[in-house]
Structure formats: C-alpha cells, structure tokens
Amino acid sequence: MLTVRTVKHRLRTPLRTAWGTLLERETLHVTLRFGPGDWGEGEAAPLEPYDGVPLAAVRAALDAYALIDAPPEKLLAACRSERDLPQALAAIDLALWDRRARLERTPIAKLIAPDALDAVPVNATIGAEDRTGAAAAAATAARAGFTCVKVKVGIGDDGGRVAAVRAAAPGITIRVDANGAWTTPNEALANLRALAPIGVELCEEPVHGVEALREVRGESPVPIAMDETHAPGSGAADAVCLKITRGGITGVLEDAQAARAAGSDVYLASTYDGPLGLRAGLHAAAGLKVTRHCGLATGTLPVREGRIVLM
Ligand SMILES: [Mg+2]
C-alpha cells in the first residue's frame, strides 16, 4: 500500500532564484507497506523552477502508482510503465531501498558496496551575488569546516566575486557553476580562461548540450562537469553531477556506471531535497566511494571537517 503526504522543510540557507527567494521547500513523502513490519519510506522532490516538473504532476503520478498491485521486486518497473516520471519514480525507488535496508538491517551504502565510505565530503554553496557577500559567505563556510565552496558564475562580475572568495578562504577548493549561462563554447572558454588563474576545481555546466560541452572541455584550462545536460555515458565532461531526483538511487547507480565507463568522474548534488532525498544521496555517494565534494549539505545534517558522517 502506498501513501503520500506533503511535507515542508526549512532550507539551511535561503535559495535565491530568478523568481524570488525560497526559504521553505515542499516535498512528497511516500510510505510503501507490503505487510506487517514490512515497509519503507521515500521522497519526491521536484523543483519546478529548476527541472520544470510541478509538484502536482508528481503527486498525480504517485496517486496512479498507488493503484498498482505488484510485489516489491516488480513495483518500480510497473510504476515506470504506468508513468515514466523520474521525480516520482525516485520516491518509489528510495522507499524500496529503505525497505531492503530495514529487512537486511544493513545501511543502504553497504548494500551498494560493503566497503562504502563512512563519511562523504560536501561543499557549501555561496548564493551571494556581490563580492562582499560572497567573501563573507566563504569565510563563514571555511570557519564551519567546509573545504569546498560552489560559486555561481555567468551572472556578472564572476572574476571579481570568485577572486573575493579566494581572498577570504585562501586554502579552500572553489567550484563554479554556470548553469549553462554561456551561450557558445567560445564565450565559455573566454570566461574559464579568466577564472582559471584564481584556482578553480571544475566548472559545472558551462554550456548546455553534449557537443558544446565536449568542445569546451577540449580547450578549457578548468575541468568541466555536466549537470543539467543529462548524458552521463557521453564522456563529454571530466565529471558528471548525479541527482537522486533523476530516478532515485537506482538511477544514480546506473548513471554512475555509465559515466565511469566513459572515463568521467562522478559526484552527487541535491536539488534542495528533503531529508530522505539527502540521506539517499549520501548513501549513494558513500556506496559509490565518491571522492569529490558533493552538493548534499543543503539540509540540516551536521558537517564536520567538510564531511557528513553517515548515520
Ligand atoms: Mg549545477
């Protein structure tokens, strides 16, 4: 039996977007019950301004899934043939992994790999769009023990802002994210050449699209990661950012395998997921033995020395 309820979560830091500031996040909490003491819970966390998927569409998919009568091992496939919506399937997948972890009394990370990591390196995200604010946020992150910060670029004064972050936190790893803001590979390359001397670990999604990414990567002084472009097996980027909302833990594991087979490194990030999505992301990262920093510090889990320890 599948039950769904809406849950509100507070974000660690307000999320500033083109349409306003998000302080709170709504997700859908899913419980799957197969029998007495046999259950698992999951979460769907679509973020419409980012992925274009409304919460109502996910809710409708979950309501349709609730009518399906299938044993646990066939449920995910049955749901996919009813409605192939990754954000909704993620909730089912998470609940199935959670159920298995409960039945086997083994953490999900260790179901994925017996020698899973017991802590995952995470980055702080700097939302400030001015030099002073970004510098202050970087100093705060460094004081809180973060060893990596992510800075948004492609929004103006990138060089000045990233340099201010570097000055405020000299030893920190700086990752930048353009969210595809640069429209041509040449524009991306000009910006990356300007940022490279500051010391940048990688640039997420400098441009959208496999071929454009491949072209940028070919000449970029900064390693390239793909995020919004979802082509993990293309080998077009040095690293691939994986997300639980794209098909749950199973989706992440499949994407990771494709990425690694194509020679790309992987790490995970949340789309401001709720606690269950973040926990799933941490366990997947630990099971995949991800060494790059993950964007999973968006909730309220404590960060120690730049890492979140798995519970
Ligand atoms: Mg990104």
Walkthrough of the structure:
With 311 residues, the chain is of the alpha/beta class. 39% of the residues lie in helices and 23% in strands. The chain is built from 11 helices and 12 strands. The longest helix has 19 residues. It is globular. The structure holds magnesium ion. Magnesium ion (MG) binds next to loops.
Mean pLDDT level: 94
**What structural class do helix, strand and pairing data support?**
alpha/beta
Question: What strand line-up does the widest sheet have?
Answer: 5-6-7-8-9-10-11
Query: How many structural units, i.e. domains?
Result: 2
- As a percent range, the share of helical residues equals 25-40%
The count of DSSP E runs of length 2 or more, i.e. the number of strands, is 12
Give the percentage of residues in beta strands: 15-25%
CATH topology of the largest domain: TIM Barrel
Short overview:
The chain is α/β, with parallel strands linked by helices. The chain has helices at 48-51, 55-65, 72-82, 86-104, 108-112, 131-143, 158-168, 185-195, 210-219, 248-261, 275-287, and strands at residues 2-17, 20-35, 38-44, 119-121, 124-126, 148-152, 173-177, 203-204, 224-226, 239-242, 265-268, 307-309. It folds into two domains: 2-105, 2-Layer Sandwich (Enolase-like, domain 1), CATH 3.30.390.10; 119-309, TIM Barrel, CATH 3.20.20.120.
